[in-house]
């Protein structure tokens, strides 16, 4: 269903471009404002809604990948004892393939000039992915009982009003895939005599998001979930302010060089001016993703922390260094009794080591596995919140465009995205001011939580 929504969205985006339906609609086929009629606008906004709905259901793709791809690979690795599968981590192969494919797609679309090809290429790609999925063999999913208890579900529902304060974070996070990328595509891509791709901005953003989402400061309670969410909102404000200042500078360069009516010309300003806001938007996404999940698991549901397998094995096994440290008297007694070691049965010793190794492999604790599954569903819920932020960004752009039509024109050079960034910074700041008393004080009040019981 998600792939179908993405496919329909990109196909409608392709059809909304002027060269596709200009004969049927009676308009012109050039990329001009007068060539965009009501039909193209309807197709455009419908496509954005479908793509946003597909992005909001991204957590289902992650669950499907875990169930259909990663688990069979791990099971095959245990049966075949294949070296590469046993040495490499769980998701390295799939993530490497995903990064390779996404790099090829983004690198190809970045150099396509017509928008019909830029939208048509992902549409064809998602169509092939949908056909491959429908014609492939799906691994049957085992029915499981409800992992969450009634009390846990009630606790999550009581905190549902908090989601109103979290959606603006997703609105700011969506800027990295929309206006930031569009601004970078019209700027100078050269580093000396070498022309580079927009990927040199997208990849650092992804790395920053990954670093924040896997940061140990939140997991080790150095930064509490409440403070982490507040910091992500502060980073969002800083990101919007930085984007507004850089866009104001870019528009000044456009006016000085007379490029207002020349959308195809390259703005003589390096695209690496946008690198700080790309890094900030990556930090906003990663930090909010980590801290929102910890807020629900640690603060709302009070789940115990899951220790890693290495830590558990280290606790279960005695320290080998401590075993080797012996007093001089014990060493002397061992030298005086050499026959005791020789009397032992070597076969019996081998069997004992094999049994300990089998036990050392570790049987999966059902309670621990259940906790990991429940935490994974919380992560999916956080992804859904980010998807709602993407939908909210479409609605916000439409509302602001109706109030201030001059802010969003047919080209980036004639638009005033700096004003939109300032507005978004003000709205995020107001959201943070309202969020702090709610998250730090009102949630501790039983009367407040009883209102949503």
Task: Give a brief outline of the structure.
With 453 residues, this protein is an all-alpha fold. It is built from 22 helices and 4 strands. Helices cover 71% and strands 2% of the residues.
Quickly list its features.
globular, 2 domains, 4 strands, Growth Hormone, Chain: A, 22 helices, about 450 residues, mainly alpha, two-stranded antiparallel sheet
How many strands, what sense, and barrel or not for the largest sheet?
A: 2 strands, parallel
Main sheet: strand order:
1-4
Residues in β-strands, percent: under 5%
Please tell me how large the radius of gyration is. Answer: 28 Å
| Inertia-based shape | globular
* pLDDT < 50 stretches: 80-88, 308-329, 335-362
How would you classify the helix and strand content by structural class? mainly alpha
Question: How many discrete structural domains?
Answer: 2
Superfamily at the CATH H level of the largest domain? MFS general substrate transporter like domains
The termini sit apart by: 33 Å
Identify the CATH class of the largest domain.
Answer: Mainly Alpha
Supply the CATH architecture of the largest domain. Answer: Up-down Bundle
CATH topology of the largest domain: Growth Hormone, Chain: A
